[in-house]
Amino acid sequence: MKQILHIMSSPKEDSSASRKMEKKLVQQLLEKYADGTVVEYDLSRMEIPHLAENHINAFFKPADQRTEKDGQDIIFSDKAGVYSEGKLKDYDFVTNYVQFFLELIGIEVIAVFRAEGQAIFGREESLNIGLQSIVLNV
């Protein structure tokens, strides 16, 4: 029996690109491993979320419609972009850290799927690229 560890981090729930990708991946895994079990951790519902919904909403609000509070919510967001390649790749320390930790506790099959660059490429294009990247190799 396969165990699937599903870690969710977006506080946007149903409107989140990463949650849509997660749903597709878990569905594919359960189709392939019908007797598999899914263990879910929703990091956005834990006591100290890394981002709240007001931050995400401010990120995607047009700049000319942002309030002063929105500006405070996203003060560091100008550092965001595409971290899987290009000049920001060296700053993607979280992916390697999480992969190392998961390997350390015995998880052997680890895949990273991204829905990045939404502000650059557009939400739908980024989501489509992310969804197309979900291919099971297990």
Automatic annotation (TrEMBL):
InterPro entries: Flavodoxin_fold (IPR003680), Flavoprotein-like_sf (IPR029039), FMN-dep_NADH:Q_OxRdtase_AzoR1 (IPR050104). Residues 2-68 form the Flavodoxin-like fold domain. Transmembrane segments: none annotated. It comes from the Bacteria. This is Flavodoxin-like fold.
